[in-house]
Design goal:
By secondary structure, the chain is an alpha+beta fold. The protein has helices spanning 5-15, 33-47, 132-140; strands at residues 18-21, 26-27, 30-31, 54-62, 69-80, 84-94, 100-111.
Length: 143
């Protein structure tokens, strides 16, 4: 039984910068944004060793279409403090003439939980969604 194409993509992003974006996961020539975001998040979580902290925010700009085929996913820690870390991720691809350009950029905030005097009930929209620790294990597991 072969591995799922997204498992292969996320594992490649976790393990290094060179990935192959699988065909069939997009519309037209652009890969679905969630697939691109998953690859960037896999690279970010591999680039930082913060097991006690969770992703608090992620913003993504899709600069150009991420097409099926070879791509590069990078992550750079912009600032690491005691309670929050800011990381930038990028997806780049070469065009038909070989010129590499940025296709997507993400800013990710990873932070520690902090005590609060506020107690908010969980949103019903979150029911059934995986916990952040379960998502982290999926995206960073070395199966």
């Amino acid at each position: 039984m072969s591995e799922h194409p997204l498992d292969v993509l996320f594992t490649a992003a976790r393990d290094g910068e060179s990935v192959v974006v699988p065909p069939g996961w997009g519309q037209g020539r652009a890969t679905f944004g969630g697939v691109v975001a998953g690859a960037m998040l896999s690279r970010v979580l591999a680039a930082v060793d913060l097991p006690e902290q969770d992703v608090r925010a992620m913003t993504i700009n899709f600069v150009g279409p991420v097409e099926a085929g070879d791509a590069r996913v990078t992550a750079e820690v912009l600032r690491q403090g005691k309670s929050a870390t800011q990381v930038e991720a990028r997806v780049t691809q070469a065009d038909a003439s070989g010129v590499e350009s940025v296709r997507a950029v993400a800013l990710v905030t990873i932070g520690a939980a902090r005590p609060s005097s506020l107690s908010l009930a969980a949103s019903p929209l979150g029911k059934g969604l995986p916990s952040t620790s379960r998502s982290r294990r999926f995206l960073t597991s070395k199966a």
